[in-house]
Amino acid sequence: MKKKTNVIILAGFLGSGKTTLLKQLLKYEKAHNHKTGVLMNELGTVSIDSDAVPGDVPLKELLNGCICCSLSDQLEKQLWSLCKENELDTLIIEATGAAHPIDVLDACLSPYLLEDLHVSGIISIMDATRWLDRDKMNVQAKMLMLEQIKHADFIIWNKTGSLSVEQKSVLESDAKRLNDGTPYVLTDYSIVELSQLFSLSVKERSEHQPVTAEKLKVKTWMYTFQGPVKKDVFENWLREAPSSIYRIKGYIKYEDQQIYLFQYSYGLPSYEKEIMKMPLRLVFIGENLDVETLTKGLQDVERMSK
Ligand SMILES: Nc1nc2c(ncn2[C@@H]2O[C@H](COP(=O)(O)OP(=O)(O)OP(=O)(O)O)[C@@H](O)[C@H]2O)c(=O)[nH]1
Q: 15 alpha carbon to ligand 1 midpoint, in Å?
């Protein structure tokens, strides 16, 4: 009988650390000579995260929508073709940060895929600080994070390095209260003992709350800088940016003429030097994005950088 492909679903709110974990899983699987494929879903029209996937890894991307709502029919098809085109040992699905993990799981359990796939489980990577501050978010976003915890087969509380002992114990009790018996870890940069993520068992699912990107009203928007901007001017703008921007990612060039992969999530900007000449596009993901004000602010950044 044909060996089934082991599927790992990475869930978790926007910017929580899913791609950070994906990169580690790919290295681990390569070191173990396991052929691994990736299905990546992004809300925007441009893929930024796919750069994290090495060229020799079979990759399918579903862009400009969420696999748990507008792209749900395509998810099954893409899973099917990834399996048929490649003899995969492992398939990692990185959902958008606005996806309900159960809808992704449902697609994997489709009768068309039953002979091909074995779902190892849902790993929910949670931005610990965002979770502790969740009352600042709207009801739908809060509910989505709650669902991501409740339906996980493994919970990773990420970005915990600067938290107090009391805050860490709140996270521990929240994991037990919301999803008793499910393993969890507290970590930074999604660092976990990876072997344990391949042998999870998918538990019986209770009813789930249908929270989707559409209900969340998460929208994406893109801005292209015409050239380099001054780092302090851009960061000043960023500090004042509305909290309804959940995520920014893309490429930016500063006055040192260096292009950086720029990421921003819950108040934290990060940069990685980029050696390729990438287009200077930033993708914004958030709710009620006021495109006019954002455009004006970013044009001002360009003007003040001259
Ligand atoms: N300070 C800090 N930053 C982290 C940590 N883990 C990840 N990051 C950074 O947070 C940003 C978002 O991480 P990603 O792994 O891209 O998050 P994601 O969940 O894939 O994001 P989306 O796909 O947009 O939902 C990146 O700049 C990471 O380097 C952490 O523990 N601490």
A: 5
My answer on whether 70 and 191 are in the same domain is yes
Closest CA to 152 of 129, 109, 130, 185: 185
Domain tally, the chain: 2
Instruction: Please tell me whether residues 150 and 294 are part of one structural domain.
Output: no
Report which ligand 1 atom has the smallest distance to the Cα of 23: 15
Question: Average model confidence (pLDDT) for the chain?
Answer: 89
Residues contacting residue 293 through CB under 8 Å, at least 6 positions apart: none
Residue 97, helix vs strand vs coil: coil
Residues with CB under 6 A from ligand 1: 12, 14-20, 49, 97, 158-159, 188-190, 247, 263, 265, 268, 270
Q: What residues make up the domain containing 274?
A: 217-304
Tokens of 246: 């959940």
CATH number for position 153: 3.40.50.300
The alpha carbon of 17 and the centre of ligand 1 are apart by a number of angstroms equal to 4
Domain boundary among 187, 211, 235: 211
Q: 274-287: per-residue pLDDT in tens?
A: 988 889 999 999 88
From ligand 1's centre to the CA of 209, what distance in Å?
26
30 — phi, psi (to 5°)? -65, -45
Do 283 and 264 meet the contact criterion of CB atoms below 8 Å apart? no
Which CATH number do you get for residue 243? 3.30.1220.10
pLDDT in tens, 61-119: 888 776 666 667 788 888 988 988 999 999 999 988 888 888 888 888 888 888 889 88
Residue 25 shares a structural domain with residue 57: yes
pLDDT of residue 100: 82
- At 131-166, the pLDDT tens digits run 999 998 888 889 899 999 999 999 999 999 999 999
Sign of the Cα torsion 35, 39, 45, 48 reads negative
211, 235, 251 - which closes a domain = 211
